[in-house]
Design brief:
The complex is a heterodimer of chains A (263) and B (254). Chain A has 263 residues and is α/β, with parallel strands linked by helices. Chain A is built from seven helices and eight strands; from the N terminus they run H-E-H-E-H-E-H-E-E-E-H-E-E-H-H. In chain A, strand 2, helix 3 and strand 3 (81-84) form a beta-alpha-beta unit. In chain A, helix 1 packs across helix 2 (33-45), helix 4 (97-116) packs across helix 7 (248-260) and helix 5 (181-191) packs antiparallel against helix 6. The radius of gyration of chain A is 18 Å and the shape is globular. The relative contact order of chain A is 0.16. By secondary structure, chain B is of the alpha/beta class. Chain B has a single domain (2-253), classed as 3-Layer(aba) Sandwich (Alkaline Phosphatase, subunit A), CATH 3.40.720. Chain B has helices at residues 14-17, 25-33, 47-56, 60-63, 85-89, 124-142, 155-163, 167-183, 243-253; strands spanning 2-9, 35-40, 69-70, 73-74, 95-100, 107-109, 146-153, 187-193, 197-200, 221-224, 226-232. In chain B, helix 7 runs antiparallel to helix 8 (167-183). The model of chain B has no long low-confidence stretch (mean pLDDT 92). The chains are: A alpha/beta (263), B alpha/beta (254).
């Protein structure tokens, strides 16, 4: 069995295990390659029909191609799609990226969870994406403020995942946590999973990571096909998120340093 | 337990420690049973630069890193073209470093820790919470055997900028003293070091921060070039901040 098949098997096991224990569950779908891959895995796990809602947190600033992709495949895959928009937030990235993300993503998600009484969520984060994520767990309890106590994490051994949603507000499940960026693309190629066109190069640029149009930028690349993307990833030393504007944490830190007088 | 334990205390100064030794029992004991001296900063008296020097063995001119932000870009570890002591030792030893403030948020190597407020808070409650959390996390890591453990407490520096000359300063040195007491039991060889000292704003050689911050809060203290050094069971001389790198190398191979 090759690496991709092993990853697929483990992810499907986790997906089914989670649903077995938590029927009030949903998938967070950002329409990016990772969450679309996760959605695909979930469709496989449940023989083509996802038995729970799929949530898109719409900040209102996404690329046009993201909205088009979402609407097309939500229909084609017969998804129970919830598009969640924080209409009362009235805040954009010009008022501070951390503030914008907090209102349009974090607080938006809190409202969705409360309204739908979700006890668990599937998310497509991967350890290799960002240093902060390296310490995540496959089953990760969160309290009502979404805080995560790194000191109090369940031990994780294969086949012995500890589910603790009954104690916490919601449980986050990360079935593709151990997948690397290149694994995702190899799986996309193997399964012929549709992906947003922004990932493929046009005029010497492509997006390795997509989100809000205001905060994402392309990287230099000529990879306009799956094979070329995979080949590029096998040799590149540039990080996946390098095309993103200074992320929200860095933006906040700079604001704070400025207010203290360091800048 | 660590064979070599380095505890950094950003901004720690003899101006507070020496006159109050009877109220700082762990500092007092360390100075009696080990060796203590002053280190003087000859380059820029800036934390980013000095912590970089301490753990790279290079002067500010050699490593080129002075500030947390350059041209509106937050400096990251990879922007500094040096090998730090942990990079060099990692090939052969079990080395961990927590919260080294040569960049913001402070840097961790081979271990994890999320500082309160990303390590840039000036709120007293957040600073206290961060200090306690960092002490707990350090203790947790030291309970496993490792070769080198480095931790830097950055909270005192911010406190002294805003509250220099007030009774709260001594109160916080007492907290640090207590934390020292719990951590030093887990180190066979000890280095306790600050990047610079402190003094009132008028006395300082240069003004590292403006008189008031963006919130209109007045700053009362600023960096002084005299830093502290306490060592125990260290066989080699440290006379300048940049000596620490080579001394760690020699000590671990001793």
């Amino acid at each position: 069995m090759n690496n991709i098949s092993e990853l697929e098997n483990k992810s499907i096991y986790i997906i089914r295990e989670a649903y077995n224990r938590h029927k009030d569950i949903a998938l967070l779908w950002s329409i990016g390659k990772d969450s679309t891959t996760l959605l695909w895995l979930i469709r496989k796990a449940f023989f083509g029909k996802i038995p729970f809602p799929v949530v898109h947190l719409d900040t209102g600033y996404k690329f046009k191609q993201i909205y088009e992709f979402r609407d097309k495949y939500a229909k084609e895959w017969d998804l129970d799609l919830i598009v969640a928009k924080n209409d009362k937030a009235n805040i954009g990235p010009e008022q501070g990226k951390l503030e914008c993300c907090t209102e349009n993503k974090t607080n938006n998600l809190k409202k969705v969870i409360k309204k739908n009484k979700f006890k668990a969520l599937y998310l497509a984060i991967r350890r290799d994406e960002h240093g902060i994520r390296a310490k995540e767990r496959i089953f990760s309890p969160r309290n009502k403020d979404f805080s995560w106590n790194y000191k109090d994490q369940p031990i994780e051994l294969w086949d012995q995942y500890e589910n603790r949603a009954e104690k916490e507000e919601h449980l986050r499940i990360h079935p593709v946590l151990d997948w690397k960026e290149i694994d995702i693309w190899k799986y996309i190629k193997k399964e012929n999973i549709p992906t947003v066109s922004l990932y493929f190069a046009k005029n010497g640029k492509r997006y390795r990571s997509i989100g809000c149009e205001t905060c994402c930028g392309p990287v230099d690349s000529d990879a306009d096909s799956l094979d070329k993307i995979i080949e590029e990833l096998e040799t590149t030393k540039i990080s996946e998120r390098s095309g993103r504007a200074q992320d929200k944490e860095s933006d906040y830190i700079m604001q704070k340093l400025r207010s203290l007088g360091y800048m | 337990m660590a064979k070599l334990l380095v505890i950094g205390i950003d901004g720690a100064t003899w101006k507070i420690i020496k006159p109050h030794l009877s109220e700082l029992p762990n500092f007092q004991n360390l100075m009696k049973t080990g060796e203590s001296k002053s280190l003087f900063v000859e380059d820029v008296v800036l934390s980013a630069a000095i912590w970089c020097t301490i753990f790279s063995g290079k002067s500010t001119k050699e490593h080129g890193h002075e500030k947390y932000v350059v041209n509106e870009n937050l400096q990251l570890r990879d922007d500094i073209a040096v090998d730090f002591i942990w990079d060099v030792l990692d090939k052969k030893y079990d080395v961990k470093a927590l919260q080294v403030p040569f960049v913001m948020p402070p840097y961790n190597f081979n271990c994890t820790y999320d500082p309160v407020g990303y390590g840039v808070s000036s709120d007293l409650n957040e600073l206290k919470e961060d200090m306690d959390n960092l002490a707990s996390r350090s203790l947790e890591l030291l309970k496993n055997n490792l070769d080198i453990f480095i931790v830097v407490f950055g909270m005192l520096d911010k406190l002294q900028h805003f509250h220099w000359g007030e009774p709260i300063i001594l109160e916080w040195y007492k907290k640090i003293d207590k934390i020292l007491g719990t951590l030093i039991e887990y180190g066979e060889k000890l280095i306790i070091i600050s990047d610079h000292g402190f003094c009132s704003r008028g006395e300082a050689r240069i003004q590292t921060l403006p008189d008031k911050n963006n919130k209109g809060e007045s700053l009362k203290g600023d960096h002084h070039e005299e830093a502290i050094l306490i060592t125990k069971n260290i066989n080699y001389e440290i006379n300048h901040h940049k000596d620490v790198f080579n001394v760690i190398l020699k000590e671990i191979n001793h």
